[in-house]
Structures are given as structure tokens and as C-alpha cells.
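REQUEST FORM: STRUCTURE PREDICTION
Request ID: SP-0412
Submitted by: Lab K.M.
Chain count: 1
Length (residues): 287
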Amino acid sequence: MTDFSAKQSIGRDTRLCMSLSARPGNAGSRLHNTLYGLLGLDYVYKSFSTTDLPAAIGGLRALGIRGCAISMPFKEAVIPLLDGLEDSARAIDSVNTIVNDDGVLTGYNTDYTAVRDLVSRRGIDPATPFLLRGSGGMAKAVVAALRDLGFREGTVVARNAEAGQGLAAQYGFRWLPELPEAGAAMLVNVTPLGMEGAQAEELAFTPAQIAACDVAFDVVAQPAETPFIKAALAGGKTVISGAEVIVLQAIEQFVLYTGIRPSAEAVKAAATFAHGPKMAPRLNDLV
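STATUS: Completed
RESULT:
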């Protein structure tokens, strides 16, 4: 495929957007830079990691960096470093997007809206019981979206008792410290299990639980098909992948940074380039 992300030049007027993550990937940079190229925008996007979050956010402000995507484990820790929160972030005390308006940093959460939209588009009945693994900032976005869609029967599984109990209690669900033997009709993974790297081959749920479920939802975006998603697809389950979540939330970030909503054709080209051909069959549900 043509590399739409190639820029002719980067000059003093080029606007920089970035991401901060403990484990930076390439998909976000590829998607944003492809859209900049397709739309002829003088922007560039770069992924970073940091061991000094306050200094990184200070640099964002001081250097006039237009926007910053925030990933694990910074989604809650970044809040005290910002000047304000938009409603989507304030409602769940979790930030995945920062917009810099002349040195004023505002936090947003486009994960929440992406999850809500995808679950709605799949037509999943809110009466469906769910079992969710994880308790971090992304887990909060998912649990909040499910609660707001009308889901009432769910269990949060998290070894961190304080975080897990707090998350479950806040949204009216149950908490367990370990994965139970029985599964649920909808399984949701919000942990790094299956992510590229040391845990790439690990299943988020047992084969028996996956075989018995109706819906498999994995927020891990790298790779687009985790072992959990592959097993669910093989079993004919309804699937929501992390790659879908990351594309939808990234488009909302793009709009916040640039003020421009890209066309469906541009989104399809950028998402396929960023996530590979396996993403293409799922794009009609996204745009």
C-alpha cells in the first residue's frame, strides 16, 4: 500500500501531536500521519514513553505541542497536571487525550465514546451478563460505558483489591480478585494479556469460557487479532477488537487536534495502513 504518511517537509509551522505510553506502538502514529498526508495538513505525530510524567506534560505545554494521546499507565496520574477536564474525562476521572490551547491543557476521554458506540453498533442486549478483567483507566472507560448503556449484571476481576473493588462499587457491579471458573455471556479483556511483547501468547480467558460466551471484547489493539479474539472468531462469536476501539477513539482525537473530521474513505485508508489488511473487513462498521 502507498505510504500516505510521508511528508514532503517539516518546518517551523508544522504542528506536533504525540502520544505517551509505557509501551509505545506504531499504529497511532501511522494512522494520524496518514490522515495528515491525505488531507494535506502540516502536522506530524510521534509516539513517546517517559519515566517522568510531570516533565513530559510540562514539555507539552512549553513547546506548544497541539495534542497528546495518553495510554496506560498514565490515564489517571496525568489529571493533576492538567488545567481542566472535559465532561467525558471528568465523569470517569480518566484521561486519554490532552488538547493544548495556547498553553491551557484540557483532558478528554475518547475511549469512553468509542466503547459506547461499538457496543451499541453490535446490538448487544444490555441484559447480557459480562465478566471484565482489569481495573485501570481503560477499564473505567469500558465499565462506565456499559453502565450508561444499561448493563446491570457484571463482574470486575482484578487482583488489585483497592482498584477492583472501588471500580465495581462505583458503577454498581460485583468484584472478584481472581478469574472464576464460570464465564459469562460477554467476556471483556482490559489487561495487557495478548498484547505484543512478553504476554503475546496469553489468553485473557480460558478456552472453556471463550467457547461458552456469546460476545468477546478485547481492548488490546496490538495485534489487531489477539489470541482471545482469534479463538472467539474461530468459534463464531460476536467480536469487538481493540483495533476497532483505537481507530474510533483516534478519529475523535484527530478532530479535537485539527478541527477537521476526515471522510469515511480517508479513515478506511488510514486504518488499513495502520493496522494491516485484517482490519479492512471490520471498517464498514466504524465509519
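NOTES: The mean pLDDT is 92.
Reviewed by: T.R.
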